[in-house]
Write a structure and sequence with these properties.
The chain is α/β, with parallel strands linked by helices. 27% of the residues lie in helices and 27% in strands. The chain folds into two domains: 71 residues, no CATH class; 60 residues, no CATH class. The longest helix has 17 residues.
Length: 147
């Protein structure tokens, strides 16, 4: 049994490149027999006006095959409350790595994601307990952590 992570959003065109960079994922190829995702969606009856000018790339896959596929599903409503589920982008290496090294790794990833449109929300910098992580929001306001 497998699963796919689905993220509700307004603009997949903004979130797909952001999350590809955040997670080291790549855009999923369109289904066999289709030159593009737009071509696929038109073939299954999605009206062209609903697709707009987008090339409709709304899916990511882990190139290693280890992580779940991610689909960015367009929904009409905007995010209004705190997420009940969030992603942790684990770049620090875990508690076996010295906190100074983890801090450097986390800060580098956070700087990259901020350039791509993330917003910093909160820092957990607790030397006494060996903790370091930063909570960010993606370009549509979805919270996630980098640790």
């Amino acid at each position: 049994m497998g699963f796919q992570l689905t993220i509700d959003c307004a603009e997949p065109d903004r979130l797909v490149p952001f999350w590809a960079a955040a997670l080291g994922y790549r855009a999923q190829d369109p289904p066999a027999g289709h030159a593009s995702w737009r071509d696929f969606y038109l073939s299954v009856g999605v009206p062209a006006e609903e697709l707009g000018d987008s090339d409709c790339v709304d899916r990511l896959v882990d190139p290693t095959g280890a992580g779940p596929a991610i689909w960015f599903q367009i929904v009409p409503e905007r995010k209004t409350l705190k997420n009940r589920l969030h992603l942790d982008v684990m770049v620090g290496g875990g508690r076996s790595v010295p906190v100074a090294v983890r801090r450097e790794r986390v800060d580098a990833k956070v700087a990259e994601l901020m350039r791509l449109g993330a917003t910093e929300l909160h820092r957990n910098d607790d030397d006494a307990n060996g903790q370091y992580g930063i909570t960010l929001a993606d370009p549509e306001g979805n919270e996630f952590c980098v640790a």
